[in-house]
Write a structure and sequence with these properties.
By secondary structure, the chain is mostly beta strands. The protein has helices spanning 187-195, 205-221, 235-240; strands spanning 2-13, 29-37, 42-47, 51-58, 62-63, 70-71, 73-82, 87-96, 111-128, 139-153, 161-164, 167-170, 173-183, 223-232, 247-251, 255-266, 272-288, 294-311, 314-318, 328-331. The radius of gyration is 23 Å and the shape is globular. The model is unreliable at 1-24 and 335-361 (pLDDT under 50).
């Protein structure tokens, strides 16, 4: 059994940029999606909602397009997002058996896939409750702990790739990715506006595109910091894909996966600060239809849990009023100073060491 435990070092938040004026109507959300070809989509999006779930289950024999082969395969996927737990889950599985009738399809002719994704987001306000213990250099740490497993059965060629549009793609693979992002308040609403624009409401398609790009640019400008991790079972795919500089990319192996994503927030010069965070988790498995008596399972239903570590003297409230206070822990102050003038200044990105969790006073 392979087991990894590692931490993705992240970013410190240290300032604010103004957003274009927009109606801030979306303050928290939950979203879940699962899709398995040829099964239908299962999706739930709750804007200003606390939970969402989706599931795929398909095991009926089917025929691909003009093929004369009756496939015997099954797809299973699930995703859930729950702000009351601070948890997101995603799992994907595919199993191929012997065809019920007709010849085995040629390698690369058809593929069986399942994809599942979960997202949650909330708006946090961190304020001072006891200026006597507030200290210079105070930081909050937003932490996403991820736990999952990859399992396979049968003889599967995970090394095979094909090229399309200058990039490498895989016939057989398993993967997961998880991201943690922090934005200025109003980012959720900008994203919602961009994704609910209707081209029919504009005089021309060009006007629609202009409006979409303007909202998209404003959404991009709302980013404060982000980090993530992705694992894929094919190294050639990892080498050819676009890689975000704040993410860590690893070769996936069967067995247990444990990871932590961290973002640190500078509180030393703050009266109170408001920010939006979003946590995402997705899994995908692909199994070529010619690969028989085999299965792939990416099970991250063991949960990814979001927590917050605050210094003594600070407190958290959330727009959802659902995020559990049990997921908030407190670290002791190490040096006491006079209360700061408490104005929010500057935002930037820099690498930081992992903050250690200490026992509450």
């Amino acid at each position: 059994m392979h087991m990894k435990k590692f931490t993705v070092g992240a970013a410190m938040l240290t300032a604010v940029v103004s957003l274009p004026a927009s109606a801030a109507t979306i303050t928290h959300h939950a979203q879940a999606l699962s899709y398995g070809a040829p099964a239908a989509n299962s999706e739930q999006i709750n804007a200003n909602g606390n939970s969402a779930s989706a599931a795929t289950a398909f095991s009926t024999p089917f025929v691909w397009g003009s093929s004369s082969t009756t496939q015997d395969a099954s797809f299973a996927g699930s995703a859930s997002a729950n702000l009351s737990e601070g948890a997101i889950r995603a799992a994907s599985a595919v199993e191929n058996r012997q065809p019920i009738s007709g010849p085995v399809l040629a390698f690369g002719e058809r593929q069986h896939m399942n994809y599942s994704e979960a997202r949650i987001g909330d708006t946090f306000t961190i304020g001072i409750t006891d200026p006597a213990v507030v200290y210079t250099g105070a930081k909050a740490t937003l932490k996403l702990d991820i736990h999952g497993t990859f399992t396979t059965t049968g003889d599967i060629d995970f090394a095979s790739v094909y090229e399309q549009w200058g990039a490498q793609y895989t016939y057989n693979s398993f993967q997961f990715s998880s991201g943690l992002t922090v934005r200025q308040a109003g980012g959720f609403d900008l994203f919602h506006q961009a994704n609910t624009l209707d081209p029919d409401d504009f005089a021309s398609f060009e006007e629609y595109l202009d409006a979409f790009y303007a909202l998209n640019d404003a959404y991009a400008a709302s980013l404060i910091a982000g980090t993530g991790i992705a694992q894929h079972s094919n190294q050639a795919y990892l080498d050819s894909t676009f890689q975000l500089p704040t993410w860590t990319y690893e070769l996936a192996e069967t067995g247990e996966v444990m990871a932590s994503l961290l973002l640190e927030i500078d509180l030393s010069n703050i009266d109170d600060t408001v920010f939006e965070w979003e946590a995402s988790l997705w899994t995908r498995v692909i199994l070529d239809s010619s690969t028989l008596n085999a299965s792939i399972n990416a099970d991250f239903g063991n949960t990814a849990i979001l927590s917050l570590i605050l210094p003594q003297g600070f407190a958290l409230t959330s727009a959802s009023d659902a995020f559990p206070q049990s997921n908030v822990t407190y670290a002791d102050a190490t040096s006491v100073s006079e209360p700061a003038t408490l104005a929010l200044i500057g935002f930037g990105l820099m690498g930081v060491a992992v903050a250690r969790r200490r026992k509450s006073a």
